[in-house]
Amino acid sequence: MEDWVSRANALISNGLKESDQLKNSEWTFEEEKHNAKIYTRPFFNNPVHAGKGETEFAHSAEEMFNFFISMPLETRWGKGNLVNPIADDGPASAEIVAEEGSLKLIFIVLQMKWPVTNREFIYIQDYRTRGNSYVIFEKSLEVPEVPITEGCVRATLNLSTLYIEPISDTRCKVTYLVNLDPCGDILDAMKEKIQLGWSTLIPAILHQHVD
């Protein structure tokens, strides 16, 4: 895995440009759920739409950033979240495979809701500060040295970006953009359903643990 850092930094540079482009594009409102407004829009050439969740918190942007970046992986992926739309009580396993400064390489296995086969992801996470705002970026990275877990399908996190922006000294806005491909033998309609559920997960987790 000697070159994972350089490959990760290249993905982050391009991914943040994509995220900023998406964030400033037009979105279609779908529903309000778990204290968040949920939107969708086409995701470049991907047949499955991107999802967006928007919500606000009575905390500063810095407080929300510090909470998210220090959150245990099990919590970030929905363990103990009563409204988890994706998996049966979060990940079966989650670990940081490697680190370089704030850059992390993470591996998780999700226990999906029946009848979907368990999914695993290997992805990078890093963050950037922009004045008083924060951007946390995640994206799948191919790492052949990490074998696929028996009984799992390796899914692809095309984009997962969390924007935390101040509204005032004691209030902030959180915008979560996500596009994933669960891979495997799943119809596009089911992928769209999973995508919508994924859009609600981060806002729901944050409200459960911060409010």
Structural features, described:
Residues 1-211 form the START domain. It holds the Pfam family START. This is START domain-containing protein. With 211 residues, the chain is of the alpha+beta class. The chain has one domain: Alpha-D-Glucose-1,6-Bisphosphate, Chain A, domain 4. Helix content is 27%, strand content 45%. Strands 1, 2, 3, 4, 5, 6, 7, 8, 9 and 10 form a ten-stranded mixed beta sheet that branches. The longest helix is centred in the C-terminal third of the chain and has 23 residues, at 188-210. The protein is globular and about 50 Å long.
**CATH topology group:** Alpha-D-Glucose-1,6-Bisphosphate, Chain A, domain 4
| Full CATH superfamily name | START domain
Q: What composes the largest sheet? A: 10 strands, mixed
Shape: globular
Domain module count: 1
Sequence of secondary-structure elements: HEEEHHEEEEEEEH
| Weakly predicted, low-confidence segments | none
* Integer average pLDDT: 85
InterPro entries: START-like_dom_sf, START_lipid-bd_dom, START_lipid_transfer
Protein name: START domain-containing protein
GO molecular function, one term: lipid binding
Pfam family, one: START
Descriptive key words:
single chain, 211 residues, alpha+beta, Alpha-D-Glucose-1,6-Bisphosphate, Chain A, domain 4, 10-stranded mixed β-sheet, 4 helices, 10 strands, globular, START_lipid_transfer, START-like_dom_sf, START_lipid-bd_dom, START domain-containing protein, lipid binding
